[in-house]
Specification:
Order of helices and strands: EHEHEHHEEHEEHHHEEHEEEEHHHHEE
Distance between the termini: 77 Å
Number of strands: 15
Shape: flat
Number of helices: 13
Helix content: 40-55%
Length: 430
């Protein structure tokens, strides 16, 4: 094998990722050891060594490889010594960068344990074939993994970590999903409390917290976790994988019956009819725009529907403390959306906001409203002072405006608002 001249300056590049498809690859230290032994044996001029633990499946994601390209462009070295072509690239983007550097004569040679690639058509073509083969293997492996996951689902086994109430078990090389005897009875009672006792998610959470129930990691269940459990078909023996995929019949033991699940599901759809849309996509005015006067946390919103005797239902919107700042046991009471609207209008009438400096957006909105209503004000001889315009706009937005207009109005006041014992107030100087 030929010996390169000293004007060919090599950078040793060693890579191994932690992904399952590279577990059999030679370790980074072993790669460097073999490459340095080869360099000493053949008299190669090694000026730098680089190593990293990143996958080469995607282009541009390897910081050390990017340093390698940068060093070649700046003529810090002009050759690469690596264990095999797939150590350099398993994607078309990075392969293209290497070939471009060869075309610019910035990269004169790539040496591997058994091959050499220089800036000739045949050797560049061979390099592209070998790296493209590595990409093909990756792509095929991805297809095979998806096919294997689908086959596993069709057999009745859900991939991944078992939901709370179950545990993953492996014995004699066989993986299984078993009931968590400590938590499964609690999960069953959650469904019974929701479907048979008509308890809300907040009531169930209070019960779980008071009973000391935690996840396997030792954390309390959040309200959103409780809702996700109550709409998860896994607990009656079926599952979706992925979440947007088809429904499969599982081989695991159900915790509840399909009948109980349907009762809970129907009740939740009645309480939260927009659950059919993306979770968390429903909009409410004033959400996270007020502060708790007791602990300083933001207020969040809850929506409840109560059936009437005539078959209809009443909608109730409550704003409550998120308990996310200093006091997780904050006892501040909730306040309704109607109470917020009435109190803000009363504060406007009492002049509580006369000294504020509204945001530019709110000022422009008030001016626009003034222009629209100016003729009516003139025709009926209504007081047209700036304070009156502000009050009229506030009344219009809070009573008839869109959700965005109501949000913008509260934000535009440029003054933090707090709620204490169902009373809204400003903290001057904040």
């Amino acid at each position: 094998m030929r010996t390169d001249t000293t004007d060919v300056k090599y950078c040793v590049y060693a890579r191994k990722s932690s992904e399952s498809d590279e577990r059999q690859a030679m370790s980074i230290d072993s790669q460097i050891k073999e490459m340095m032994a080869m360099a000493n044996r053949e008299g190669l001029n090694v000026v730098e060594t680089k190593k990293e633990s990143f996958s080469a499946k995607q282009s541009g994601y390897r910081p050390v490889f990017n340093e390698l390209l940068h060093g070649l462009r700046n003529c810090e070295f002009n050759a690469i010594l690596t264990w095999a072509p797939d150590r350099l690239s398993r994607n078309a983007g990075d392969l293209g960068s290497l070939v471009d550097l060869m075309d610019m004569n910035k990269l004169q040679r790539i040496r591997t344990f058994g091959q050499s690639f220089s800036n000739t058509p045949n050797e560049k073509f061979l390099l592209m074939i070998l790296c493209s083969q590595a990409k093909l293997e990756n792509d095929n492996r991805g297809v095979n993994v998806k096919r294997g996951i689908r086959a596993k689902c069709e057999m009745g086994w859900r991939p991944g970590c078992a939901p709370i109430g179950y545990i993953n078990r492996s014995y004699n090389g066989i993986k299984d999903i078993m009931l968590d005897n400590d938590r499964a009875p609690i999960i069953k009672e959650m469904f019974e409390r929701s479907g048979l006792m008509n308890q809300s998610g907040r009531t169930i959470k209070d019960w779980l917290d008071s009973s000391g129930f935690t996840t396997k990691a030792g954390a309390k269940l959040s309200l959103s976790q409780i809702y996700r459990i109550l709409i998860n078909p896994f607990y009656y023996g079926y599952f979706k994988f992925p979440e947007s995929g088809p429904l499969y019949k599982g081989l695991h033991k159900p915790i509840i019956t399909k009948e109980l699940f349907d009762i809970v599901r129907a009740r939740m759809m009645a309480i939260m009819p927009e659950e059919k849309t993306a979770w968390g996509s429903k909009k409410f005015p004033f959400k996270h725009l007020f502060y708790c006067g007791s602990c300083g946390s933001r207020l969040t919103v809850e929506e409840h529907f109560k059936k009437r005797k005539d078959g209809g239902q009443n909608r109730h919107v409550y704003y409550r403390c998120t308990k996310s700042t200093k006091d997780p046991d904050c006892k501040e009471r909730s306040i309704t959306a109607n109470m917020i609207t009435e109190q803000i209008l009363a504060m406007v009438d009492n002049g509580d906001f006369d000294n504020i400096e509204p945001t530019e957006q709110l000022f422009n909105k008030i001016e626009q409203y003034k222009r629209v209503t100016s003729q009516l004000i003139k025709d009926y001889g209504i007081d047209s002072s700036e304070k009156t315009h502000f009050k009229n706009y506030a009344s219009y937005v809070l009573k008839q405006g869109t959700l965005n207009e109501q949000d913008s109005f509260i934000r535009g006041l440029n003054s933090p608002l707090f709620v204490n014992d169902k009373v809204i107030y400003r903290r001057y100087g904040t």
